[in-house]
Prior knowledge:
- The protein has about 180 residues and is mainly beta.
- It has helices at about 1-15, 20-25; strands at about 25-40, 50-60, 65-80, 85-100, 105-125, 125-145, 150-160, 165-175.
- The protein is built from two helices and eight strands, in the order ααββββββββ.
- A hairpin with a 2-residue loop joins strand 7 and strand 8 (about 165-175).
Amino acid sequence: MKKVLLASVLAASILVANPAAAQTADGSFFVGGDIGHAKLDESGLDSGNLFAVNGGYRWQIAPALKIGAEGGYVQLGDFDAGWADAKAKMKGWTLGGNLHYNFTPNWYASARLGAFFADLSFSSRYGSYSDDRTGSYGGVGFGYDFSNNASVGLNYTHFRVAGSDVNALSVNGEWRF
Length: 177
């Protein structure tokens, strides 16, 4: 996981500090939010509700392609199991990179990849456990740009931390300024 963290921080640093990218293209700040559904890939645990906010900066490196750095917070929900009154929670901070490609003037495809700094907790009638771990996330999406400033999309994101996988499907809204 240290390799994922190092790669994410290095990629974000290069994007932020690269004067050539800043000089050759316009860019914009963005903020966004996601709501959706997350499924922890552990037998016997139900799905949870996802909530996320993020923001960052994207540079336009070609007429239809933007690449950027992002950071945010995600709550992957509460996962319940009927056996032993077990509950699992996963939430944390994200740091990574993204791209936004317009394949028509309004329709786009997106991708993201980075580090997930997770706060994990598990409790049951037999006891409880909590830990902070570093994992990874990656995802793809598509959507519609209503203007240069606003879009809505559908995203799939995969989170991997502490040997567990979470698959998330969400609706995303984004505002660029």
